[in-house]
Amino acid sequence: MKPVTKFLRRVVTKAMQASATGLSLADKIADMDHALTTAELAKLLSVNRATIFRHAKANRIPHFHVCVRLRFDPRATAKWLRAQ
């Protein structure tokens, strides 16, 4: 199985588990009032930070740079998650 497919399956599974508890994972992320760090996004999606870095580098996850650090806009990330 391709790493991208495995990653997306894990993200979608995590989102479905969150939606079973009421508020969807995408809604929780969209409600955040600050740009997410790599560690925060990795924890929310239950993946390793290296996975987030790899997918951001390949432009599979919407992101932006603050100096040399990656950040993730909560609304753009939620929109991306809903599209998966």
Name some characteristics of this structure:
84 residues, mainly alpha, two-stranded antiparallel ribbon, globular
Walk me through this protein's architecture:
- With 84 residues, the chain is mainly α.
- It has one domain.
- 61% of the residues lie in helices and 7% in strands.
- A hairpin with a 2-residue loop joins strand 1 and strand 2.
- Helix 3 (38-45) crosses helix 4 (49-57).
- The two termini are 17 Å apart.
- The mean pLDDT is 85.
Largest sheet: 2 strands, antiparallel
| Arithmetic mean pLDDT | 85
Strand element count: 2
- The computed structural class is mainly alpha
Distance between the termini: 17 Å
Order of helices and strands: HHHHEEH
Could you state the oligomeric state of the chains shown? single chain
Lateral strand order in the biggest sheet: 1-2
Q: How much of the polypeptide forms β-strand, as a percent range? A: 5-15%
Write the layout of secondary structure elements.
Elements: H1 3-20, H2 25-30, H3 38-45, H4 49-57, E1 64-66, E2 69-71, H5 74-83
Antiparallel strand pairs: 1-2
Helix pairs in contact: 3-4
Short description:
With 84 residues, this protein is mainly alpha-helical. The chain has helices at 3-20, 25-30, 38-45, 49-57, 74-83, and strands spanning 64-66, 69-71. The chain has one domain (3-83).
